[in-house]
Structure formats: C-alpha cells, structure tokens
Amino acid sequence: APAAPASAIDTIAETGPATTGSVLVPLDTKQPPSVRADITALREKLLDEAAKTPASSPDTYKVAVALCDSWLAALDERDKIVAAQSNTQQPMGTADMDSSKAVHPGYYELKKEQQEANKKKQDDKKENAFFSDAQKQQWQQRCALWQKQLDQLYAQMGDLRRKASQTPAAPTPPATAVPSGALPPP
To answer: What angle do CA 53, 57, 59 make, to 5 degrees?
Structure first.
C-alpha cells in the first residue's frame, strides 16, 4: 500500500488533477458526494499546516488555498446550474387547465381538451429541453474557463513547491587567487 502523503501540499500535488476532474464533471454526470467535504477538509488542513508545521513556502500555501477556494467556487456555480436545471424540469406554462373545462363535456369537448393537454405537454417538454441544453452548454463553456484557471493555480503551486524544496547551494569561492594569509570574502 502506498504511504500517506507527508503534507497537505503533497496531497494536492498528488490529487489536484483528479480533484479538478471531479469538480468539473458534466451536469448529467453524478458528482462524487464527498468532493466538497474533501476539498473543505484539505483547505483547513492547509491553513493549519501553514501556521504550525509548514512543509513548503508561505506562497505555496497561499496558492494551494486559492486552488481549494477555486474548486469550491466552481462547485458552487455547478450547484446553482443544477438547481436551476431541476427547476426547469417542472412543467412550465399555464398553471391549471381544469378551470377552462366544460362542466358536462360532450365527446367533442373531451377530445379537444385531450388534444390541448397533449399539445401543452409537448410544448412544455420542448421548452424544458431547450433550457436544459442551454444550461449544459453554459456549464461546458464555464468548465473550459475553470479548467484554465485551475490548471494555472496547480502549475503555480507546483513551481513554488519545487522552488521551496530546492536548498540553495553553498556559495562557490571566487576564481581569483587569494594571497596567502588573507581570508576569502564571506
């Protein structure tokens, strides 16, 4: 079994692309239920770790927290679109057609009411499909923008993480000859 990551920074480094994929799933794909809770817990762990036992530079932690915040903002946006989409699944149009029905309808009145009700259902279905498709397309466009932003933050965090892990090499002595008995410059 692989060892647990040593720090929250390591966790993001290992799971960042997969987390982005889980956040930016299409609207008609079920999202893993623990994504929001996992990101929130990771964000809190980053803040605690940065304050107590940082494994990287403060800038690395700032960018990692910004990445978590962006994931959460993308989840919020997706949730709003999903909520709006579920609202469009409700039939639209007139509220109650029963009020216009004849009290004692004859055969032709019943047939006409049935045709009107069927037409209304078809019209509502078309209108709901339009809104659903428009929302899916809107989310796809937003995903492209989110993907770009999240990839930039992830790359920036990786760059900062690498820079922080590189320890500066000891300065090399100057190539000029040093007279005997003189100390080299510090």
So the answer is: 125
Mean pLDDT by 10 residues, the chain (186 residues): 73 95 91 92 97 94 97 94 72 51 70 78 60 83 95 96 74 44 44
CB atoms within 10 A of CB 16: 20
The one-letter amino acid code at 147 reads: Q
